[in-house]
Structure formats: C-alpha cells, structure tokens
Amino acid sequence: MSQKKIATNPLKLLVINGSFRESSLSGTFAQLFGRMAQSTFDICHLGVRELNLPNFDYEVAKHPQAQKFRAAIAKADGIILISPEYHGCVSGALKNSLDYIQHELANKPVGVLATAGSAKSGTNTLNTLRTICRSLRSHVLIEQISLSKEELTSDKQLNEKTRERCEGMINEMLDTIYRLNTYSETKETQRFALA
C-alpha cells in the first residue's frame, strides 16, 4: 500500500471490536481492517473484552473503563464498530459499552461492520448499529459491511472483493471527516489506495 500523507497530525481512527471472545471473527476483521487503514489513519484498537464494563447503570457511569472508552472516542476523528451478530442483533457487550456514551459520538463519522455465519447475515446487526449511532447523533457511513469466514482467504487475509469494500469504507470515512470539518487541513489528494 502506498499513501501520501498531507496532514501534520494523522487522522485518528478508532476500531472497536464488539466481541467478548478472545479469538473472535470480529477481532480478526478489526485487525485486518486496521492494517488496511493504517496508511491513511493513525489506528487505535479497543475491544469490549478489554473494557470489561459492568452492566450500565447511571450509578456506574463514571467507571474508570467507561471514562477510558469515552476519551478514546473523543480523541478519534472517526470510529469503526464491528459486532458479531447474536440472535439477530448486536452483541450485548457492545450495546452495553455504547450505553456509557454521552455526547462523544456526536458529529463523528461511524462505519459499521457485522460478522455472522454467512455474508448474507448480519443485516439486523448493521441496522441496529445504525439506529444506536443515529441516536447518539453520529454520522453513519453509507457503506456497511457484513462479513463471514467466507471473506477470508486460506492465509487468513481479506479476499479481493472484501478488500475493495473496505477500501470504499476507508475513503468514505476520510471524505466524511473532511466534509464535517473535523480536521483543519486541506484534503487535497489524500486517498487510500491498494498497492
């Protein structure tokens, strides 16, 4: 991958893994997506397993891990949410983590991805993530991706079609960040491209 950076300070992209499982498909895709985007963004990974937040209640809203989560979102120029689909919905751990959000996602671009048993699944999770993010006043990207093990090659990389869709999401994220004026420098020619 070749990428010319024009920004003095690179744009920050927070990739959130919504699976609590240690070796999950969502975690694998979070890492692969982060690697693809690292020529365009400074990548930060955060997972619900790492956060390990208690069930949300207003009495625990100032939990130290919740403050860490909100601070990471506040610092990011864009967010990627990846959730497994459990019983046709977003993971409970990710939903619980998002319940701790106050205003940090407001006016931030958010990309949504779901992992499921097949690439044709995941629609309910994507729709739920969109609804949650809109409720938190974020700008949900048009591109959304549902992933399964079928999108991995034999050497555990993204297949070409999935890489192209991820590239589209990365470019849309970049365009949306600049359109929302969340970054002060001129866009010029900063574009993501596969090598």
From TrEMBL:
Co-factor requirement: FMN
Residues in the signal sequence: none
Enzyme class label: oxidoreductase
Pfam families hit by this protein: FMN_red (PF03358)
Enzyme Commission (EC) number: 1.-.-.-
SUPFAM superfamilies in alphabetical order: Flavoproteins
Alphabetized UniProt keyword annotations: Flavoprotein, FMN, Oxidoreductase
Example of a GO MF term: oxidoreductase activity
InterPro entries referenced in this protein's UniProt entry, alphabetically: Flavoprotein-like_sf, FMN_Rdtase-like_dom, NAD(P)H-dep_reductase
Domain NADPH-dependent FMN reductase-like: 12-149
Domain of life from the UniProt record: Bacteria
Entry protein name: NADPH-dependent FMN reductase
Source organism of the structure: Thorsellia kenyensis
Lineage, uppermost ranks: Bacteria, Pseudomonadati, Pseudomonadota, Gammaproteobacteria, Enterobacterales
